[in-house]
Amino acid sequence: MSDFLNAYSIQRWLESCPQGYLENTVFGHGADENEPGLFLDNEILREDAVRSTVQLVVGERCALAASSGLINAAPDEASKRFLATQTIDEARHVEVFTQRLYDLGVKKSDLESTIGKYANPNLVKFAEVLLEKVDKKDFISGVVGQNIVLEGMAFSVFEMMHAMNQEMNPKFAHVLSGTIADERRHVGFGENRIGSLIQEHPEKRPEIEKMQKDMSYHMLATFADAFRGNQTAAELDRIGQERSHTKYQGADLGAMAPEEMETLLADTVLKEFKVRLGRIGLEYQSPARP
Ligand SMILES: [Fe+2]
Ligand SMILES: [Fe+2]
Q1: From the CA of 86, how far away is ligand 2's center (Å)?
Q2: Residue 130 CB: number of other CB atoms within 10 A?
Q3: 3-state DSSP call for residue 231?
Q4: Dihedral through CA 259, CA 51, CA 242, CA 156, nearest 10?
Q5: In the prediction, which pLDDT does 249 show?
């Protein structure tokens, strides 16, 4: 427990995060970095960027509600303090992705209507499954739903977006690299804290495994909508703009069709779920493929 206390203490968080990789950033990026003109001037690219950023805001609002809600459900003081640091991380993620919407030209007065217009209904359902557990103060299910399922998904999505943006949009890639570092810490907490609790409460397993299966289904449906409706790759090809060739999971995203990217992302996330759930003593439940 003492290693656990050190690794997830507020002191460690201060040193590694605000005084570490976030030092001297402004909304997660360098003060001199801006959204590239390519994304501001081309309406197809701009709308796709707004749509995908809205999904990040929706996911992070869910993580903010879940991490703050779980503080009062946590059975021990160390977990409460960690979740307090996670709460501010998630609030920051909401803020930096909301700021990106403003940077892409969304007016402040249009924020909620823009989110309402573009939020993926499957992602909203995904969030509802998790927040239902949090509302019941079900700590074990809540941590698995948040720190393994939601954040396992977020981690892989951010890594893929980072690879796609590294060359074309260093400002957004920089914002993503800070959130990736945060999510890595959150996923680590989930695995470290929850294994022993599941052993103490084996009767919770079927309910948690069902939640994971339901959330995974809504996640795959979200990916399907996101990639199948995405016009960015086709538009970049049409205007003769070279796509980013940074590798993700060993694959060149710049040479892939959206459906191939969807399959790669879904397979990567589901493989991760299997490994992480296995480590905490849960059996991964395979969802239907939407
Ligand atoms: Fe987050
Ligand atoms: Fe997180």
Answers
A1: 7
A2: 25
A3: coil
A4: -60
A5: 92
